[in-house]
Every structure is written in C-alpha cells, then in structure tokens.
Amino acid sequence: MSLKKISFEELTFPYSVKVGTRDVEAEEVFPHQERVERAFNLALGLEDEGYNVYVCGIPGVGRTTCTLRKVKEVASQKQTPKDVCYVNNFDDPVRPKALLFPQGKGKKFVELIEKALEFLKRETFRAFEGKEYEEEIANITKSIDKKKEEVIQELTEKAKEHNLMVLFSPQGVRLLPLFRIETPVSEEELFKDPRIRAEYQKNIQEFEPIMRDYMRRLRDLDAELGEALINLRNRIGEELINRALQELVEEFKDLPEVLKYLESLKKELAKNIHLFIEWEKAKGNLMAQSGINRALNIFRANLFVDNSELKGAPVVYEKVPTLKGLFGQINYRAEMGILYADHLSLTPGSLHKANGGYLIVDLWEILKNPVLYFLLKRTIKHGKLFIMGGMMEEIPVPHVGLSPEPIPFSAKVFLIGDPYLYYLLTNYDEEFSELFKIKAEFDVNVPVDEELLAAFPKIVKKIVEDKKLKDLTPEALTEVLKFSVYESGNLKKARLNLADISALLQEANVYAEGEYIEANQIKKAVREKIYRVNLIEEKILEYIKNGKIIISVEGSKIGQINGLSVLSLGDYSFGKPSRITATVYPGSKGIVHIEREIELSGPIHSKGVYILSSYLFHNYSGEFPLQLSANLTFEQGYEFVEGDSASAAELLALLSAIAKVPLRQDLAITGSIDQFGNIQPVGGIKEKVEGFFKVCKFTKFSGTQGVIIPAQNLDELLLDDEVLFAIKEGSFHLYQITHIDDAIELMTGMKPDKFHKKVKEELKTFYEIAKEIKKKSKKKK
User: Fold this and answer.
1) What is the SS3 assignment for 571?
2) Catalytic residue of the set 70, 688, 694, 760
3) Residue 484 falls in the annotated catalytic set
4) How many of the other CB atoms lie within 10 Å of CB of 396?
5) Closest CA to 215 of 163, 154, 171
6) So what's the pLDDT on residue 158?
7) 477 with 377, same domain?
8) 645 classed as catalytic
9) Considering its fold, how many domains does the chain have in total?
10) Which uninterrupted H or E stretch holds 593?
C-alpha cells in the first residue's frame, strides 16, 4: 500500500523567473526543438528530389517563424537563381517563350530591348525620310527609267517598220496606223477606207508578238525597280536593326537561346519596319501613337522573375495561397468584345518567385482548394512550372487563350501543417510520402529547465516588441510561465504556444495601469479569460447547489461514490463530479453498465467495465464461482461517457454495494484500474480536482473533503491559488494512491483485508442463494 496525503509544499509552483523583459534582448528562440533542428539540417543539406519538408505542429508553436529563420540562414549562402523573361513566340504567339538569364541580366535584357525600340522609333524615320534615302531612290529610279526609255525607243522603231505608232497613255498602250509620211491616220479615215483598215489589221497582227516581248521587258524593269527599292529599304532597315540590336547581341553572346530569339526578332522587326516610320508620322496624334505602341508590344520582353536585388536564394512565404497567388496569372484585357492576352500579360506566382530557392506555405489553406494541392504535387514531381491562373477553362467569355512555355522548377517546399493532416495524407496519399520525405515535428510541451528559463524572457520580450506592449516584471513573467506550465498539464513541462501567450499578454496589457505589466494583471487576464467562457460550468454548479443535480459531499453511503469527469466545450474544459451508484443481487448476469446498454458510452469505457469483471473474478472466484448480477450507472448523466478514468470509482461503488459497507461522500476519486487493482494515471487531473473543490465551495465545506488521484498524476497538479490556499489551511485534501486497496482504506475506514473478507462473505452468500434456487428449480422439474 502507498496511500499518501499530498502536502501543500508538493503543490507549490517550483519555478521563478529572475529577470523582467526590460533586462533582456528580444530573440526568436525555440528551446528543446532538436528534432526540428536536425530535420531542417538534413533537408537543407540535400538537393535530391523528394526531400521537401512537412513542418508539423499545432498552430502557435512557432512553425512558420522557426522555418523562416532557419531557411533564411541557409538561403543567404546559396547561389541566386536565374531571372526569367517571357518573350513573344513569333512562330506560335499563343505559346510565349521563356528565356532564362543569370541574376540581373533579365532586367538588362528588358532595358536593352526597350532601348532598341526607342532607337528604331527615332532613327527609322530619319533614315527613310532623309535626303540620302531620297537620292538613292532617285538614282535607282533614274537608272531604271533610262533602261525603260531605251526599250520604248526600240519598240517605237520596230513599230515604224510596221507602219504603226506606239501611244502610251494612263489607259494603256495603243497602236495607231501611219501614212508613209509618218503621220497617224485618224479613226474616221481608218474606218472609211477599207484598204487602210485591212493594212492596219495586218500590221498589228504581225507586230503583236514583237510588242509583247517589249512589254515584258518593260514589266521586268518595273519589277527590277520595285525589287531594288525593296532591297534598298531592307538594307537600310537591316542596318538599323543590326545597330539597334548590336548591344543585345554583344551582351548575351554566351546565351544560345537568347541569340536564337534575337535572330527571330530581327526578321520580325524587318517585316514591321513601317511601324517605326508611322510612329514618327503620328506625332501629336496620341490615339494613333497609342495604337502603334500596342502593335510594338510583340517585340517587348516581360521581366517575369527579377532576382537582380536578391542576395542568395529566394525565400517566399505564401500565407494565403490561391491559384493565381501560387501559379501566376494571365491578365486578359478586352479588345473588340474579346478578351485578349499576350506575353506581357503574364505575372508570376509564389512558385515562380521561389524557384531555385525555398517556398513556405500553409497546408490547410492549400487543402481548402484541392486543385491547388494536386497542382503543387504535379509541379514538384515533374519539375515543370506552368502559369495556371487565368487559364482558358477559367474564362467564361470568348477570349484568345495563352499557353506559356513552362519553366524548370527546383524549389524546396516546406508545408506547414498539424499532425492530423500529416497522418491523413501519409495514409491516404501515396505521392505525399514520396514528395515530402522529411518531417520536422515541433513539440509544444517542452521541459522546464535552465535552458527554458533562460530563453523564456527572450521569447516573451519578442512578443512584447512585436505587439508594442509594456515590459513585464520578473513576477509577471513567472505568472506567464505558470500559465504555460498549466496549459501543458505537467509541472515539469511548459506549453510554448506563442499565440496563446501573445493573447494573454495583450489582455494583461489592457489592465496594466503602471509602467510595467505586473503579476496581478497576468492573473486577472487568466481569470477574465476563464470567466468569458465558463458560463455552462457556473450553470451546472448552480444546479448542484439548488439540488437539481444531486451530489453528496458529506456523510457515507452504500453503493454510491463521487467519480470525476471532464467536460470539454472546445474553448474551455472543466471538471464535474458524477454520482456513480451500484446495485447488486444474486444472479448470473455479471456487471451490467446501464450507459453501455443504452449506447451512451464509448468503447474505452466499456473496456473499463470488462476489467471490473476481470478484477472480481481474479480476486473472489477462487473458492466458489461468482453468482452476481450488478447494475452500474452515472446518475443524472445525460451526456456521452467515454474513457476509463472512472473505473476505480465504479469498482469501489460495486464492492461497497456487495459488502454493504458505506463509502465516504466527502471524497471524490479518479483513476483507472487494471485487472489486478493497480491504479493507472488519467487525464484532466487539474480540472477534476478544481471541479470537486468548486462543488464543495458552492454547497458546504466540512474541512474533510478532498480528492483521491493516481500517484502518477502528481506532477500534473498545478492548481488554482484558491484551491492551494484551502489545502494549506487544511480545509481541502488531496491523496495519492497506487492500488485500489489504498482507496478502500481511505473511503471505508476498514483495512483492505477485512474489507475483502466482507466482500467474499457476501459473494459466498450470493452463491449459496443461487445454489439453493437452482436446487428448487430442479425439484420442480
């Protein structure tokens, strides 16, 4: 036996913070997270595929902050990734081409392209409208005209030989007959004299083949003139374009893909050289110049990802991921009733900005849109990054869709999520484990030791600075630490939920009237936080006080005991006593738990009931078989019952009913048992103790009341100051036990051996009664 009364000294908060936040520098520290540190070191040291990271932990533990800090440290030492520019694909405009540049060269490329266009706007008009160009045209035209005159002269001479005269006019070429004196014959004379008409027709018939040959020569000369003018135009245009692009070619001579694009750009500029002439002509006409400028967009470059100012690899945190936010967007514009887009309409997403570096993203936000999760996995798996926002399937009106060329993807992705999502994806998504091979798991409950006590003021100081709060005194910091220890449920641990600590400090800051936040303000913030959410608890206590919920906290009763349970409302949990009763009679039904029969209890509670049966058989059925029927229930219990923490109380009620020995009602008990009667630890110890204390306070303090708990739960007792004061004054008591026999002695006042003997005697009586009933039944048959 190891029944022991717990002293006030054992329950005193054992830690204190020696400095206030004014005495320390703010620092983002994460004590006792070695598991996370080692996982990060491995992930950040590996470049292999699949070594992305799932950062696991509850919200508020510092997952994002710690990840950002660690990743930024490593990223600053990494190589800066390439810039990305999208340019027009002249062969297939709906598939803009992606060009990759060394850091800062993408910006340079865009600037030089724009510089080249400005050069062409300025110089093209000068070249084609200048005196030199006109003189060259005149020389070419003069040369061709001279050749044409020679052909015409020959044609005229040939025509004379056939008594014909060639007449050139805007309507075409005409042949007229000649007299011998070489004067043309009028149409009137031609049609009056049959002889002349016949001779004319004969001459034309003979001359037409000759004339066709000369006319072909004239057409060839016209074509030669046109070709010469085109060649002149092309030569000048080519010279201008070469001059315009010379700096680009020189700057990017080591980038084959860029040079290949510049060659295609030259050809397209040559085809559209007239746009630059029209630009100068349209000066003063803003609408015309705006239209020409839009037409020139096909030659411009879109600086899609600019890493020119970056030092090291990029680190991008996408807090609220969307399709457009992650995968970029195609921005359509309306033209003539149709949505239109080109390579300049492309904007990057976080994946593009993080490419070659690190992306940190909240998994829960991604799973709100399952398409995002699928697309993210596809991007990681295949190493190709597409622009997805604004794709054709998203646009419900007529439009010209784009399908930009994807770029290679090589970022390491850190998913921020909780344990539930991790195990869900691990079990139901085969690809998840392949793509996220490393788990970095935060422990929210960390040991309270010298390391934590040194780090805690710095952690709080960081919150104070971030939220612009007043500094805390050492005593106030101790109360914050006490709050964290309370939240952990273990006196040796502190729950470092930074979000909860921050909320507590912000509320305490409101109550602080002086220069600092004092301990009393922290305590008040804790009390007020509880008060805002404990209305249901107060109502239950009122029902108990008014006798509507029957709970006895004094005297002794057979087959009745005060068990303890915890009600959780989501934002608040509290303990309440439950009146457990047992009735027994001779029979063979065994233990019937009413809650189980009506399906008002869960499987773990049912398991506890079966363990009760096993305990009875193990301890009392050696000399005779058990002939017992028993009913157990939680009186006035209308909520669902789960867990085995009441199994010790149920066993005591059952044994009390069998032995007809009363149990103390001024004590409550919590704890589960095994088949041998050993007491096992349970959860919610603090809530249960405080819950019974409140019931005693609301009804009547006798000075003997208290709670029996498993010895293993002693390190979880961080009680309210009011409860501690009552324990110190001796008006409320706590006891620790390791075996059911410890509780038997305390609850009945009997030695365990004597009590068990009494139980056996009563069970033997049940056996004899059952045996007699069986005999009488046989005689009747």
Assistant:
1) coil
2) 688
3) no
4) 7
5) 154
6) 74
7) no
8) yes
9) 3
10) strand 590-593
- Dihedral sign for Cα atoms in the order 670, 673, 676, 679: negative
Distance CA 505, CA 445 (A): 19
Helix (H, G, I), strand (E, B) or coil at 240: helix
3-state secondary structure at position 151: helix
Whether 687 and 746 share a structural domain: yes
CA-CA distance, 732 to 729, in Å (whole number)?
Answer: 8
What is the chain's length? 781
Both structure tokens of 75: 């990223």
pLDDT digits (tens, 9 = 90+) for 758-767: 988 888 887 7
Query: Of 508, 533, 558, which closes a domain?
Result: 533
Among 541, 540, 533, which residue's Cα sits nearest to residue 695? Answer: 541
655 and 565 in a common domain: yes
Domain end, chosen from 443, 469, 495, is at 443
β-pair type (628-635, 590-593) = parallel
Bridge partners for 582 per DSSP: 632
Pairing verdict, β 412-417 and 53-56:
parallel
Q: Give the residues across from 579 on adjacent strands.
A: 562, 635
- Is the same domain home to 452 and 435? no
Residue 345 structural domain: 30-81+312-443
* Low-confidence spans in the chain with pLDDT less than 70: 1, 130, 133, 169-172, 179-193, 196, 232, 335-337, 389-401, 592-602, 605, 608, 638-643, 777-781
63 vs 415: CA distance, rounded Å: 10
Integer Rg of the chain from CA: 48
> CA 509 → CA 92, 320, 341, 464, 554, distances in Å?
63, 30, 53, 10, 43
Distance CA 710, CA 647 (A): 12
Q: How far apart are alpha carbons 19 and 633 in whole angstroms?
A: 53
Active-site annotation holder among 645, 647, 656, 672? 645
Q: Give which of 391, 138, 127, 373 is closest to 236, Cα–Cα.
A: 127
The Cα 582–Cα 590 span in angstroms is 12
Question: 10 Å Cβ neighbour count for 419?
Answer: 14
Cα–Cα distances (Å) from 772 to 488, 583, 588, 778, in that order, read 57, 21, 14, 10
Its pTM stands at: 0.81
Work out the widest C-alpha separation in the chain, in whole angstroms: 169
Alpha-carbon distance of 437 to 406, in angstroms, equals 26
Distances (CA, A) of 543 to 368, 666, 722: 43, 18, 22
Q: Give dist(CA 301, CA 109) in Å, integer.
A: 8
List the alpha helices (DSSP H) in 272-415.
274-281, 286-295, 323-327, 350-354, 363-367, 370-382
- Clarify whether residues 496 and 407 are in a common domain: no
